[in-house]
Design a protein that fits this description.
This is DNA (cytosine-5-)-methyltransferase. Pfam families: DNA_methylase (PF00145). Keywords: Methyltransferase, S-adenosyl-L-methionine, Transferase. GO terms for molecular function: DNA (cytosine-5-)-methyltransferase activity; DNA binding. Its EC number is 2.1.1.37. This protein folds into 2 domains: 196 residues, Vaccinia Virus protein VP39 (Rossmann fold, 3-Layer(aba) Sandwich); 111 residues, Alpha-Beta Complex (DNA Methylase, Chain A, domain 2). It has a 7-stranded mixed beta sheet, sandwiched between helices. By secondary structure, the protein is an alpha/beta fold. Helix 1 crosses helix 11. Strand 2, helix 2 and strand 3 form a beta-alpha-beta unit. The protein contains 11 helices and 10 strands. The longest helix is centred in the C-terminal third of the chain and has 14 residues.
Length: 319
């Protein structure tokens, strides 16, 4: 009998989480995504899925069910992390306010609402580990219990442990314990992008177009050593962070974010959208649409595909 567990992806973005599940044989039947560019990317890559380009706060579960025809077996998704990340200096001081008052943080409650309404066998919600700060993990556990899921696990995983060529730590909140076996070795930047030619229309590689940079910055990046950033800025607390980092070719990349721009290890230019997508484990067949900034943002906000696939493999064993 063919394995075809049905997946609904909430806060789906361009489909990194779904891509990993698709690679494991799951059927992606639906997605909810407010950003029109990301939703267009998702629809292009998963043409059989019904994509709801809606604000989830205004989307009724019955509307989803009427379009899908049946309840999904699995619901996945990554609500916005801005309200929870420790890197946000404007994060609510009171932990409960992050969940119940912050307009982005409270979107977690809509993930929980739809899970409660559609009753999947498994749900997996991705976010930053900061969502557990201040005892908020227990509050989230209570919210899931309120809609019928008394068992909730907080699975903290590192993307680089599962074949992603970049660092990323995230918590996956689920009604199942998720502990995939680590790959045992890390994939480096050069393993991920080394076979790509310089960006040139001749090669017809999707999303592999040059990224413009001022003449002054081009001169300055030429002097950067591996691991050295062109721009320093103050992050959370007293941390000093960097952007326009020249990547070390023989290590995994730093965390890829929407605002991140990396310098090529050997060439004096910025990485293309395709190269950064490779650092997140996307296959070249996964295409991004919209402005260049939007494409970078879609890549940076995704769940890394190899990590998503490792999680999907564990879920498949359970089901």
């Amino acid at each position: 009998m063919e394995f075809a567990m049905k997946v609904l992806d909430l806060f789906a973005g361009a489909g990194g989480f779904s891509r990993g599940f698709h690679q494991e044989g799951f059927e992606i039947v639906g997605a909810v995504e407010l950003d029109s560019n990301a939703a267009s990317s998702f629809a292009l890559n998963f043409p059989k899925a019904h994509v709801f380009v809606n604000d989830i706060r205004e989307l009724h579960s019955l509307d989803i069910l009427s379009k899908l025809g049946e309840k999904p077996d699995v619901i996945i998704g990554g609500p916005p992390c801005e309200g929870y990340t420790r890197a946000n200096p404007k994060r609510e001081k009171e932990p409960l306010n992050r969940l119940y008052v912050d307009p982005l943080g409270s979107l977690v409650l809509h993930f929980i609402r739809i899970v409660g309404d559609l009753e999947p066998e498994v749900f997996v919600m991705e976010n930053v580990p900061g969502i557990l700060d201040g005892g908020l993990g227990e509050v989230i556990r209570e919210e899931f219990a309120r809609v019928g899921y008394s068992e909730v696990y907080f699975n903290v995983l590192k993307a680089e442990d599962y074949g992603t060529p970049s660092h990323r730590v995230r918590v996956f909140i689920s009604n199942k314990k998720i502990a995939p076996k680590k790959t045992g070795r890390q994939v480096t930047v050069w393993e991920a992008i080394g076979d790509l030619p310089p960006p040139d229309p001749y090669y017809e590689i999707p999303n592999h177009e040059p990224v413009s940079l001022s003449t002054g910055k081009l001169k300055r990046i030429a002097k950067l050593k591996w691991g050295e950033p062109l721009i320093h800025y103050r992050g959370y607390g007293k941390r000093v962070l960097g952007n326009l980092v020249r990547l070390h070719p023989y290590r995994p990349s730093p965390t890829v974010m929407g605002s991140t721009r990396f310098v090529h290890p050997f060439e004096n230019r910025l990485l293309t959208v395709r190269e950064q997508a490779r650092l997140m484990g996307f296959p070249d067949s996964h295409v991004f649409v919209g402005s260049k900034d939007s494409q970078f943002n879609q890549v940076g906000e995704a769940v890394p595909v190899p990590l998503a696939r490792a999680i999907a493999g564990e879920i498949r064993k359970i089901l």
